[in-house]
Amino acid sequence: MLELFFKKVNEKINLTEEEQAACAQYFISKKLRKKQYLLQAGDVCKYSAFVEKGILRSYTTDEKGAEHIMQFALEGWWIADMYSFLTGEPSIYNIDALEDAELLLLSSAAQEKLFHQIPKFERYFRILIQNNMIAMQRRLIGSLSLSAEENYVHLINANPGMLQLVPQHMIASYLGITPETLSRIRKQLATRR
Amino acid sequence: MLELFFKKVNEKINLTEEEQAACAQYFISKKLRKKQYLLQAGDVCKYSAFVEKGILRSYTTDEKGAEHIMQFALEGWWIADMYSFLTGEPSIYNIDALEDAELLLLSSAAQEKLFHQIPKFERYFRILIQNNMIAMQRRLIGSLSLSAEENYVHLINANPGMLQLVPQHMIASYLGITPETLSRIRKQLATRR
DNA sequence: AAGCGGCGTTGATGTAAGTCAAGCAAATCT
DNA sequence: AGATTTGCTTGACTTACATCAACGCCGCTT
């Protein structure tokens, strides 16, 4: 159940066998069906979720009903509304599954205990947050200064695989463009070689 | 020297007199002339800076020579490249002063000692980082989904005062639009009342 | 005081991306 | 299997913003 989790964690910090064994109690495993919500806007984000299998996304819906995807979480990634999770305020994001998924959930109480028992995990989560911050900064600068095509190419280069796993109109939403525009960009790129 | 600093800190956590007195040793005060760099791209960001007086900005310069402003720091705000600061990697950002400024600098070594002596500061900085994250998320969603005019209005509403303090072309750069477009937007808004 | 450079404005024109509408193929439901 | 929905594409047209160029206004310098 936690194979992928330990693989990813051990890329950043090194856990002993005992530490690994001690981890397990803190996580709740959960399966999600396609289109099922993990979090709905207005609710409090009670868990950080590690994706063992499947794909999730977080997004907001604006007044005009348009969805804006904040984040995808492929296998081996974390997803949550960190703000709501840490403060207990209601979230403005929805999180749902693009396909059937298996998750490991960590509540904030469990997280604190985990930090206390295995302090290395503080480091692990700090690294995750840092990486998240720089990714968001890059994305912001991209959206302010690059063309839709450039942003698309960067996304796909940084993340091949995604293209097969995520429907195209969601990639468009993530990039902040319409599905039509993305379709035309892809046509351009295809013929231009 | 640290009046504004304590005022801001005490909005989030409550320091006793003794704690305040103990703080002082960890900070280095520094004055910056208008246009002077606190950090140049390629260097490591050795300090987080609290702005006692003046205004700073962080920005990148792209291949075409255009500047993209990541953050402004008005009086009472913090500025740094958190990533470079925490990892020791060279920064991609420049940080400089828009006008003569007075800063309190905190090195990462000093920060650790401060956390150790007054653990409340961990909380304080965690709150800062959280607020920074949600601000960045909002800005990203804005830039993906709103018009230039809407983004401008939100910025000014969230931050009156800024308009008087920051040159208009830098606000344009922050919003990811040209100075000409911002000028036209402002004209629109002015005549439309 | 004269000269200069930076900043904001305005106009004319260009272009990337949005909108609306239609059509088709594949997936999903009954 | 037939019906319905969902996702992707394509075309015609519109729109928001960029680009280029010119001009006036201050605040510097000397």
Top keywords for this entry?
homodimer, 193 residues, alpha+beta, Jelly Rolls, 2 domains, 4-stranded antiparallel beta sheet, 9 helices, 21% strand, DNA-binding
- What is the assembly state of the chains in this entry? homodimer
Low-confidence stretches of chain A: none
DSSP strand content of chain A: 15-25%
Question: How many structural domains are formed by the residues of chain A?
Answer: 2
Q: According to CATH, what is the topology of the largest domain in chain A?
A: Jelly Rolls
Strand order of the largest sheet of chain A: 1-8-3-6
| CA distance, first residue to last residue of chain A | 44 Å
Listing every helix as H and every strand as E from the N terminus to the C terminus, the arrangement of chain A reads HHEEEEEEHEEHHHHHH
CATH homology superfamily of the largest domain in chain A: Jelly Rolls
Give me the secondary-structure category of chain A.
alpha+beta
| CATH C-level label of the largest domain in chain A | Mainly Beta
Do you know the CATH architecture of the largest domain in chain A?
Sandwich
If you average the pLDDT of chain A, what whole number results?
A: 94
Query: What's the total number of strands of chain A?
Result: 8
For the biggest sheet of chain A, the summary is: 4 strands, antiparallel
Biggest interface in this structure?
Answer: A-B, 25 and 25 residues
Number of helical regions of chain A: 9
**CA-atom Rg of chain A in angstroms:** 18 Å
